[in-house]
Amino acid sequence: MPDPFTFYDGTPVNTKAQWECRRKEILAMAAKYLYGPVPGDCDSVSGSVSGANVNISCKVGTKTGTFTATISGSGKAITLDLASGILPSGSKKLAFGSGFENGIKSLYGLSELNPNIAKGWMINRVMDVLEQNPNSGHDPSKIVVSGCSGCGKGAFLTGVFSRVPVVVIVESGGGGGTSWRMTEWFRHGAGKSRWNCSDQPQGIDNLEDNGICGPWVTKAADPFRSSPAKVNALPFDQHMLLATIAPRYLVHFTNANGAGSWCHLAGTSEALAAWAAYPVYKALGVPENMAFEVYSGGHCGVGDTGIAAKMFDRALFGNTSISTGGLKIPDNRVQIPVSEWKSLFIDWNMDKTLQ
Q1: 167: which strand partners?
Q2: Is the dihedral of CA 215, 221, 226, 230 positive or negative?
Q3: 162 contacts: CB under 8 Å, gap ≥ 6
Q4: pLDDT digits over 236-265, tens only?
């Protein structure tokens, strides 16, 4: 697993300011190798808010694009539920106007755009306009995105490629917050003998072309899909993408991966990615802002075990006295004990502190 605390050129990351540069480098590498182009911010953005309606105007060079969104319902939080997400109760619902993906592609001259990255771009624009209209009755610091399964991948990508304040990822599997390297190790490498399920884990080579909230990768990923061992040469893995969400709030769930349980989404690989991302939250001094748990139950049917409600209380309602953050990874819910992970997958300092 690559070191999040070392730039591609070998320069160490020692400060929080350097981490912000490293974060941008990680996102650029992910765009290059897996997810295709990522539209940047507008040169200028303006808009208005009238009740539930948000109107957005974005200028890029000589082009101007117009977009709409709605924020309906009542409550303090604003939620984008991609499907079967875990969300705070009593929240407003965020939705985007029709044709926004094509509008973004036209504005930036793109032939291909990951739909979840497009949703992240729209969240950023909604936040821009809400920040410009502080008396709108909608708080841009209280937006949550969530989804499960294929839409867990969607929530992962939307959260990574945006500045949405709270991200809740549920059972995202391959293409989401799951280590490509560990899954390849289980599928074709030395870990194959230790995979204790009849259902093979979802890796780069058996990732579906489409599905709910898909497609999850673009043509950029084709070389890895045809030669899956190449993921071991990627200059990043998904733990580093999860880490780019820091210091924003992240709640992350996966399902148990024991024999006879839900195996396809490779819960052990998702747990490894979360476990290897958490040191960045600790290094930045915000360990309470990330919570992860391996639960056990029906796919997308477990719901919150309590860690999301606590995080919502902290992130959305200002209860900083509540205990949040940390990892819950019981050995009986993963394919190999956590005690073996460091020797198998980590050769960098997991206890670093950034100044």
Answers
A1: 145, 250
A2: negative
A3: 119, 120, 121, 123, 124, 145
A4: 999 999 999 999 999 999 999 755 557 899
| Rounded (10°) CA dihedral 122, 287, 348, 167 | -20
**Nearest residue to 74 via CA among 9, 6, 138, 163:** 138
For 48, other C-beta atoms within 10 Å of its C-beta total 13
User: By the 8 A CB rule, do 221 and 227 touch?
Assistant: no
Q: Are 44 and 51 in contact (CB under 8 A)?
A: no
* DSSP strand pairing (92-96 vs 326-328): unpaired
100-108 and 115-132 helices, crossing angle to 10° = 90
Say what the pTM is.
Answer: 0.97
- Cα–Cα distances (Å) from 95 to 82, 116, 314, in that order, read 10, 13, 25
Q: Which residues contact 97 (CB under 8 A, 6 or more apart)?
A: 67, 68, 69, 70
| Residue whose C-alpha is closest to residue 108's, from 69, 67, 143 | 67
- So what's the pLDDT on residue 263? 86
pLDDT at 8: 98
